[in-house]
Amino acid sequence: MKTAILITARLKSTRLPLKVLKPIMGRPMLEHLVNRLKRAKRPQGIILCTSTLCQDDPLAEQAARYPGVEVFRGDPDDVLLRLAHAAETFGVNTIVSCTADNPFVDPEYVDFLVEFHLNGAYDYSRTEGMPFGTFSYALRRDAIVRACEIKATSDTEVWGGYFTETGEFSCGVLRVTDPAIAWPELRLTVDTPEDFELATQIIQELSASGVPFGLREIVQLCRNRPDLVRLNKHIVQKAGAPTVLKKGG
């Protein structure tokens, strides 16, 4: 049974244009995420899932330069369908889903989540308690296919509700209580210039030693530097489209 990380990414951002390819210390933000995810041990591959639109050509070209990273191009708006088709194309049965907006997705908890997901035989699994933007999701391919069958919209950029709100799927929650990591109010996603500034300062500060750093080091830095946390504390996360089901779906 193949497990792979599927990174969804587009270049359509309006609040921070081309954010995924914006450089931090001379490398695109995407590259920092890819290098971090390569430290996860349970997945057997990484697939960048973007759209077929020419707007996203630079993203696909950039990802294709990374050794060990595959590229899949699919539906621009229907993220669930894109994930389903990517998993089918590459023979992936267990999907670890994350987005390129989140350069600090934690590889250690990718492994913990895969183990939790497979041991519980869940359709959909998530973590609870980690900083916002550092978590991932685990899904069975068959569950994503079923979600595509019951949804009544092609806008699935935010898709968690199709698993948690419909009663169709078995869902697991891996609760994170380790005080060295648990800080759900800490915003580590990148959607605005303020978010990008925080990510840049974290990477610059923690890369100085030349040793790969993990989520524990990030959280410790932010606890010691409240000035960093204040950079994006006022940012409000955009709401996603509602879960819409077919009648009788």
Major sheet strand order: 5-4-1-6-8-7-9
Q: Sheet bearing the most strands, described?
A: 7 strands, mixed
- Give helix and strand order, one letter per element, not per position: EEEHEHEHEHEEHHEHHH
CATH architecture: Alpha-Beta Complex
Would you report the number of β strands?
A: 9
Instruction: Please report the first level of CATH classification, the CATH class.
Output: Alpha Beta
**Structural class, from secondary structure content?**
alpha/beta
User: Radius of gyration, rounded?
Assistant: 17 Å
State the fourth-level CATH superfamily. Spore Coat Polysaccharide Biosynthesis Protein SpsA, Chain A
* Fraction of residues in helix: 25-40%
Q: Identify the overall geometry.
A: globular
Low confidence ranges: none
Instruction: Output the number of helix runs.
Output: 9
Structural domain count: 1
Instruction: Return the average pLDDT rounded to an integer.
Output: 96
Written overview of the protein:
The protein has 249 residues and is α/β, with parallel strands linked by helices. The chain has a single domain (3-178), classed as Spore Coat Polysaccharide Biosynthesis Protein SpsA, Chain A (Alpha-Beta Complex), CATH 3.90.550.10. It is 34% helix and 17% strand. The protein has nine helices and nine strands. The chain has helices spanning 29-37, 57-63, 79-90, 107-120, 141-150, 161-164, 193-207, 215-224, 226-229; strands at 3-8, 23-24, 27-28, 46-51, 69-74, 94-99, 124-128, 137-140, 171-175. The strands form two sheets. The protein has a seven-stranded mixed beta sheet with strand order 5-4-1-6-8-7-9, with helices on both faces. Strands 2-3 form a two-stranded antiparallel ribbon. The longest helix has 15 residues, at 193-207. The radius of gyration is 17 Å and the shape is globular. It starts with a strand and ends in a 20-residue tail after the last helix. The mean pLDDT is 96.
